[in-house]
Amino acid sequence: MSSRETILQRLRNRTGGELTVPECDFSVLVRDDWSTKERIERFEKMIESVHGEVHHCTEDMWMERLAEVLNTRGARNLLIPKQHEIGQSLRTAGRNDLPELLIYDEPIESWQSHLFNEVDASITSTRGGIAETGSLILWPNEDEPRLMSLVPPVHIAVLRAAELYTTFHEAMKAQNWAAGMPTNALLISGPSKTADIEQTLAYGVHGPKELIVLIIE
Amino acid sequence: MSETAEHTGHHIDVKEFHPRAQAAIHDPKIRKNFRSAMDGLMSKRKTAFEGWDLETLRDLGANVRLRALANLPDLLEQLEKKLIENGIRVHWAVDGDEACRIVRDICKARDAKTVIKGKSMVSEEMELNHYLEEQGIEALESDLGEYIVQLADETPSHIIMPAIHKNTGEISQLLHEKTGTDLSNDVEYLTASARLQLREKFMNADVGVSGVNFAVAETGTLCLVENEGNGRMTTTVPKCHIAVTGIEKVVPSMEDVSALLALLTRSATGQHITTYFNMISGPRKAEELDGPEEVHLVLVDNGRSSIYQDDELLDTLRCIRCGACMNHCPVYTRVGGHAYGTTYPGPIGKILMPHLIGLDEGRHLPSASSLCGACGEVCPVKIPIPDLLVRLRQESVDGDKLHPAKVRGHGAKRSSMEAMIWKGWAWMHASPGIYRFGTGAASKFRALQPSKAGAWTDYRTPPKLAAKTLHQRMKERGQ
Ligand code: SF4
């Protein structure tokens, strides 16, 4: 008998007999409807409490803010999506206050060490955010691959205020995650960090040292 | 090579709990490191649940886990089906050795020489690192705490914070000796050095091995909780990702995950959520530009299906490995994780390890507790840990030949002397005449009471018998 069958059979022929299935009432996870304003405030508070940064932007001026953010950090380049409108508008804006724009359009194998060693910052879209925990929802794809939000030392994420949910529970229901998930989905709630050395917080241990959120209101 | 060859484990002798606990209690560094860390974690947990109806949330957590366990075999099959549809390969292992061999075979098939690892307690349980090393495959831990512990050739002393027993100076010294970094108490510098060292390793590793926090049957999704990003690196950069997990980790849907996640991170470290919540549902698709080409899941039983047989012991399998029970345990806080000598220390270790190693080897574990109940009160999935400890204590002295107890190695702690004394005790208490005679005689000859009563009086003054028994006094009062 295979190990699979051995295990399943042992579980099926439980000596204790059938187990009762309890009711699960998820209403405790449902938060009173927070207004958009409350959601933004909570989101900002949570992100800042974990060393992230939030900038309030509008459709018209987010690029300006982005340029400021990058310039104060002396970023030499910025990794942008190719298809997504964020990338499109950056490329067509013709601004001279932005650093060199890079595109992730080749398999990682062909430029791994460049990505790991030479890219200073990246910008990605989000599929919304979660106010209660200060989280960003990312579904990486071929246009914005998984490593974009992980390898560069600065990750900038664009979040539309209208897509800010109250809780994770609400977000997954509203977006119907049960219908199917992408190969990789992420909640990102701050820059990479560790407290493994005597409980002292240090940022950027493996992932980005900084997480900057541009909220478009 | 023989397929049944057991690999040589790096077991500490679990039976030596008492001398190790003694040594730890007299080690001011251990006392201080654990005390301050645990105090901090306890208060952070409390703050993190502010504004939540914690009892109702814990009820939900318990029910979600119980529901999953009630359907465990079906859910495992559903999970397997869904994962295969998603392109993830599924393997089953009855024990740690088989799981190790599965990982080895996947590595060998890819001609892999180096494995980078994300945090996985199940792989600690399997002693995977040593096994792979014996097979000529380098296995390197990438979680900073695990990395430190591995460099020191130690085992984790806490399931969430593996290197909590070390202070900055020791870590600096260790990194200096093993990796050539400068001696420094600057945690930023030490962390940045480790980042550099490990980034090289991520880029060159052939295989990434990780654990799993929740496996979702409905969508075929493996969920990983972490702060550092090493888990994401491990599961994204190498061409092949192998996830290992206990069979109890499966839940029906993402909705269940939302409840457990709300409880897990707050209970563990007092965080509302961890930096990364990584949900993996498949290998890289043809059009995608990164991610592993191959994803495997190894479902490990290793004693879990035995625990599953018994209605009471089954509750052990609800555990989501948050570590809150150890953070709040007065024994763990004082002796630290290494004193237990087991993969999982603290209260969860005391109720889980006897099943994995047998009650003969783990005989001291259920007794290493004051039964104060703190663990049961904080457990996010309401595991009645103290009740389970009592049950295991019973099993460890079990002598019932007709209805023998269930846990492997039961009865190992039974002493015929002790059993006789308790039999006598029961007999005396069941016969009023003998009871009165016995207590009366004890009071009368109380001067003969020995001043030492074994280990009990090592740290305590011996209780003195009163001059008169309670019965005598009541009689004198005319009642
Ligand atoms: S037994 Fe409960 S408190 Fe302890 S680690 Fe498991 S879930 Fe957490």
Automatic annotation (TrEMBL), chain A:
<dbReference type="InterPro" id="IPR024185">
    <property type="entry name" value="FTHF_cligase-like_sf"/>
</dbReference>
<dbReference type="Pfam" id="PF02589">
    <property type="entry name" value="LUD_dom"/>
</dbReference>
<feature type="domain" description="LUD">
    <location>
        <begin position="40"/>
        <end position="216"/>
    </location>
</feature>
<dbReference type="InterPro" id="IPR003741">
    <property type="entry name" value="LUD_dom"/>
</dbReference>
<dbReference type="InterPro" id="IPR037171">
    <property type="entry name" value="NagB/RpiA_transferase-like"/>
</dbReference>
<protein>
    <recommendedName>
        <fullName>LUD domain-containing protein</fullName>
    </recommendedName>
</protein>
Automatic annotation (TrEMBL), chain B:
<dbReference type="GO" id="GO:0051539">
    <property type="term" value="F:4 iron, 4 sulfur cluster binding"/>
</dbReference>
<dbReference type="InterPro" id="IPR009051">
    <property type="entry name" value="Helical_ferredxn"/>
</dbReference>
<dbReference type="Pfam" id="PF13183">
    <property type="entry name" value="Fer4_8"/>
</dbReference>
<dbReference type="Pfam" id="PF02589">
    <property type="entry name" value="LUD_dom"/>
</dbReference>
<dbReference type="GO" id="GO:0046872">
    <property type="term" value="F:metal ion binding"/>
</dbReference>
<dbReference type="InterPro" id="IPR017896">
    <property type="entry name" value="4Fe4S_Fe-S-bd"/>
</dbReference>
<dbReference type="InterPro" id="IPR003741">
    <property type="entry name" value="LUD_dom"/>
</dbReference>
<dbReference type="InterPro" id="IPR024185">
    <property type="entry name" value="FTHF_cligase-like_sf"/>
</dbReference>
<keyword id="KW-0677">Repeat</keyword>
<dbReference type="InterPro" id="IPR024569">
    <property type="entry name" value="LutB_C"/>
</dbReference>
<dbReference type="InterPro" id="IPR037171">
    <property type="entry name" value="NagB/RpiA_transferase-like"/>
</dbReference>
<keyword id="KW-0249">Electron transport</keyword>
<dbReference type="InterPro" id="IPR004452">
    <property type="entry name" value="LutB/LldF"/>
</dbReference>
<keyword id="KW-0479">Metal-binding</keyword>
<keyword id="KW-0408">Iron</keyword>
<keyword id="KW-0004">4Fe-4S</keyword>
<dbReference type="Pfam" id="PF11870">
    <property type="entry name" value="LutB_C"/>
</dbReference>
<feature type="domain" description="4Fe-4S ferredoxin-type">
    <location>
        <begin position="310"/>
        <end position="339"/>
    </location>
</feature>
<keyword id="KW-0813">Transport</keyword>
<dbReference type="InterPro" id="IPR017900">
    <property type="entry name" value="4Fe4S_Fe_S_CS"/>
</dbReference>
<protein>
    <submittedName>
        <fullName>Iron-sulfur cluster-binding protein</fullName>
    </submittedName>
</protein>
<keyword id="KW-0411">Iron-sulfur</keyword>
